[in-house]
């Protein structure tokens, strides 16, 4: 029986791959075997570009200036990029990690940690540019000191290959980010903030043409459209309304059968953090809304809370759909963040473009990002409730405050047709009135306006 093939080294489809290894470890051969030539930014090639000689060490600073410029432009365009250099010193890796953070892509280290003597021999036998044994040994000492700290340096993943056999057997595979669902095509029905309003959600799904499926107890556990349409929830399924558990049960059932997609809202994000106990941002303060939701989830049959946690924990911060023509994010998303996956992007998607200040109602002040939006993708979102919303530069907010006594609203994509159902009552008093004369609405050209929801 043959030995099983090793697991591929998975890297995100959009990321910065940083090769780390001393001279003679085979970095350039590894890059050439696993990546396209255009994806690889080589320090030796850049040195040759600026000095006509890849061995000219006096051109090293200029070579890395060129390399960093190329990396910057590739990441700005959303292209996977591989850095072929020794990168054994923290000072060499630091600007690469900063570039990855600037463009909101993960950095992945692939370390070729081969035996010192093997690399000394290989480097000395090079026909075109042999490297002295002392240089290789110095690089090896730097590598040994740096490998244990790589994960803490800020790399999203660190793959270490410790022998020539491991390097030869290695394969590399790309894995799409959770936000990249470009191969998911419509038609979609994008639904605004539900906030526990299960009855209104059932009514809205019925008006949209979905057939509800119920369990033995009569509870809705799924819904399917006869024409194959699918729902996309903009987040904030829970809290405030009367039945957050029922809304989760229905949304989870639809997601499990492929009839719905969903993004995380700030309320799901807080629920996950509360159930984990702690995490980025520290321990969660459980207010009355979240406390009530937790009580209702705990009261459900055994296993439901764990299923709800797993569902919410898997939700992406935003989704790029339909070949990039549609982006759904809870609080909206500017074009530079579409398809990117970082803490900064997640914060924008969950909370919007906040200033850190509070308005007269004690709510966060948010900048009107949609007024400056000129992106190709339609952006559909929620988070900021009002009695009605209008299209602004191919973006639309769908939160019409159902839990506050407003309505639950959906938009049919790509038709841009609005459908809404009124709330049965006010379940939770709004901090800011849904129709607030002091709250400025964006001004639009007549051609941008859309008809009111039905």
Concise structural overview:
Helix content is 32%, strand content 20%. With 454 residues, it is α/β, with parallel strands linked by helices.
Key features of this structure:
454 residues; alpha/beta; Purple Acid Phosphatase, chain A, domain 2; 2 domains; 5-stranded parallel β-sheet; 5-stranded mixed β-sheet; 14 helices; 21 strands
Strand fraction equals: 15-25%
Helix proportion of residues, in percent? 25-40%
- By CATH, the superfamily of the largest domain comes out as Metallo-dependent phosphatases
Q: Biggest sheet, strands in spatial order?
A: 3-4-2-5-6
Question: Based on DSSP secondary structure assignment, what is the total number of beta strands?
Answer: 21
Question: Any idea of the CATH topology of the largest domain?
Answer: Purple Acid Phosphatase, chain A, domain 2
User: Which outline best applies?
Assistant: elongated
> Low-confidence stretches at least 5 residues in length (pLDDT < 50)?
439-454
Quaternary structure state of the chains depicted = single chain
Query: Mind telling me the C-alpha Rg?
Result: 26 Å
Largest sheet: 5 strands, parallel
User: Separation of termini?
Assistant: 66 Å
Number of domains: 2
- The CATH architecture category of the largest domain equals 4-Layer Sandwich
Structural class: alpha/beta
Q: Count the DSSP helices.
A: 14
Overall mean confidence score, pLDDT: 91
